[in-house]
Every structure is written in structure tokens, then in C-alpha cells.
Amino acid sequence: MKYCSTRGGVSGLSFVDSLLIGLAPDGGLLVPEQLPDVGADISRWRGLNFVQFAQEIIPLFATDIAPAILKELIVKSYENFEHEDVVGWQQLGDITVMELFHGPTLAFKDIALQFLGRLFEYALALNNQHLNILGATSGDTGSAAIAGVCGQSNVDIFILYPDNRVSPLQELQMTTVPDENVHCLAIDGSFDDCQSLMKEVFADLDFKRELNLGAVNSVNWARILAQVVYYGYASLKYEEAVSFCVPTGNFGNVFAAYLARQMGFPIEKLLVATNENDILARFIDTGEYSRGEVHQTLSPAMDIQVASNFERYLYYHFGKDTDKLCAFMEQFQTGGSAQISPPEGDFMATAVDTKQTLDAVRKAYRDYGYVLDPHTAVSYAACGYFRDIVEGPLICVATAHPAKFPDAVHSAVPQAPAQHPALDALIGLPQRKTVIEPTVEAVKNYLRTASSR
Prior knowledge:
Strand 9, helix 11 and strand 10 (267-274) form a beta-alpha-beta unit. This protein has a domain at 88-103 and 221-416: Rossmann fold, CATH 3.40.50. The protein starts with a strand and ends with a helix. The model has no long low-confidence stretch (mean pLDDT 95). It has a six-stranded mixed sheet with strand order 3-4-14-9-10-13, sandwiched between helices. It has 19 helices and 15 strands. Helix 3 crosses helix 10, helix 5 runs parallel beside helix 6 and helix 15 (354-368) crosses helix 16. It has 453 residues and is an alpha/beta fold. It has helices at residues 15-21, 42-45, 50-57, 67-77, 109-126, 140-149, 168-175, 191-203, 205-211, 221-235, 252-263, 279-286, 310-317, 322-335, 354-368, 374-386, 406-412, 421-424, 440-450; strands spanning 3-5, 30-32, 88-92, 95-99, 131-136, 155-162, 182-187, 213-215, 242-247, 267-274, 288-290, 337-339, 348-351, 394-398, 434-436.
């Protein structure tokens, strides 16, 4: 399996190359040159547990790693999950909740980032390399990425996050990690500002080579690959095709579901649930991709107006025509808006406001005694909107443990349990963070000074 850039300037990369490069040198995102067709294998994969299933899917995309080594890396990636099968399940009436938050930091991103951490450890040891990882987070990516690589001698990780715009517990999960290879950088701005800074730093190819920069955000293809696994796995739990409703911000999670369907897994509809930051819902309905003001909401991981992984979807939507893609991205970059005909058949979407989010938390607790975090509540509210037009099983994707957002949960249901021992243990621990100016030069200067390369 080889990898190429969505913008056409890079091709023929191995999986390990794509892992370490992260963002393509031409500014595009890396994608497989072709997707495997799994239709003939589905019947033999039914009944596997999650790790066994991952050991079937991931080797299709990582053909340059010996199968025995890759299978062992997958086992190690999921040893520290609380649920015996990694993914948990709850039935709330006619909606199934797929719980992806049983990893070390209680967020769905652990499923990808625990695997990514093991991959980095393996790939860097091959050639005795050191990697400086630069990432941006709206909350959960940062802590999950740190948990994946903290303490590794051949990695320094630098996480940009919007100061005072992540939840207090999300910040504690990052800033209380004592390992010297962890650097938390608070930026005065939004997540989009952090993400823009990260991309601008990566765009300086000389600096990228000088610091040997790697990516941990979902611009890194390995992140998407690990997420494809749980959509394929979930789809095979039923005899009929399933639909997924996904709380969406940066588009990586629902894009992984899109790829799983393209590969031949029995997936009917993909339902995109956004909060008030509704750029993706508006695009799916109208074909207009138009940047707006970032609104702070109860679901901060979705407070995004520029979705990084959207470019990967456009690559497929445009039939892999890189010229069309580049023209679209240039128009959006320069004018803040780009337009195509409304895409049909790939997704359905709706936006969920704060009131609807809180109502969803109340409803799930009142009817089933089940506590939703505010991101999953956005998805659950959207499920109610779509339930009558979706045939077959409808799966609500649960992306975070409610204990990560106790204030939001308790504003809806004061008596609802929203605690977890792992988070309680963080209270009062010493914190390490650096507040820096929201400029590219400030980020570069910090990386040069703090890297142990």
C-alpha cells in the first residue's frame, strides 16, 4: 500500500513514511493510493473481538511493517483500556450508543493515539531517530496524544491549545503530566488559531526538516486508519446495514466512517451532528463551505470552523482530481468561502444548539438513567431528529466520558453522576504549561529552545 497527497505533489510513500511525515510537503493530506475492497472478507470477520478485527484491517494499509510486529503493536495499544473489548455498548430504546471513551484519557481519540504512540516508538527505533511532534487541540486530542508518547526518549511532544477554552479537567489531563518530553503551550485564541499556527509551521519545509517535525493531529493518516477499525467492527455486529450519527468538528471521525463504507462495510447512512459551529452542516445542505465566527459551546472539541480532514473528503468527492481540490482550497483560503453543488448521498447533517444539547442530556438520564457528555449529547439529539428517516440500526457515537465535562452535565441534571477516579486524582497536582504569543515565530522559537533533539 502506497500513499499520496490530496494536492498531487507527493506519491509512492510507504505507510511508515506517511506516519513520520504527517502533513504532506505540498500542504495536502496523505491518503492511500487505493482503498481495499473488503466485501469478500466480511463473513469471516464476524464474531472477532476488537483487537482481532484490528489485526485484520490495519495490515491492509501498513504493508511495510512485518505482520507479526504489527499485530503485537496492536495488542499493546489496547492493553490499558478499561473495557474488555475496547468499545462499549449501551441500548437506549431504539438507539445504540457506541462508547469509544474507555481508554486512558476517557476520550475516543485514545483508540487512535495509543496505537499512534506505539507506531512512533517502533518506527523511530528502526533508525535511532528523534521526532518533535507538534499538535493542536480543542481538548481531547492533546491529552490523548500526550498519553500515547509521554516518557518516550525519542519523542518530544508540543501541544498548542486555546487558553481558557478547554474544560478545566481537559487542561489538567495535559498540564499535570510530569514527563520532560511533554510541552503544553497555551495560546490566546481559538482552536482554529492553534490549528492554523500548526499548519503554518509545517508549511515551512526547511524548519520542518531542521526540527524533524511530525504530526499527531488527525492530519496524520494513521489516526484515521485506527478510526476506520471501529466503524467496520460496529457494522458487523448486525445482520443489516447500520447508520452512524457522529458528533463532528474536525471531520476526521466521520470521515473514517465514510472510508469504511467505501471499503465495503455494510453502512447505510452517515449522519453529521454539529453544534452551533455549523460549517459542515451548512456545506452538506447547501454545498457552501464558508468560514464563520467560532462560538464557544458546551461541546468545546467541536468548536471549530475550519475542519482539517474535510480536504480528504473533497479529494474523493472530486474523483481524486487534485487540480479541482487545489482550486477549491485556494478559494476558501483567500476568501473564506467556496461553493460547489450540494453533495448528495454521502452524508446527512443537522446542527444542535445548546438548549437541544442540554435537553438530550436530561432525556437520556430521565428515560434510561444514562449520562451523556455534551459532545455525545449533540449526537443523541441529532439521532432523535433523524430516527424516523433511518431504517435499520442507528448507532450514536459516544466520544467522551461525562466525567470530563461535569459542569455541562450538572447544568442539565444536577444529580447525575459525572466523576471518574482517574480525573479525581488530577485535582491539586502541579501543572506545567507555557503561555506564548499566537504567532508562528513564537511557536518556532519555543520549539527550537525546548526540543531535546
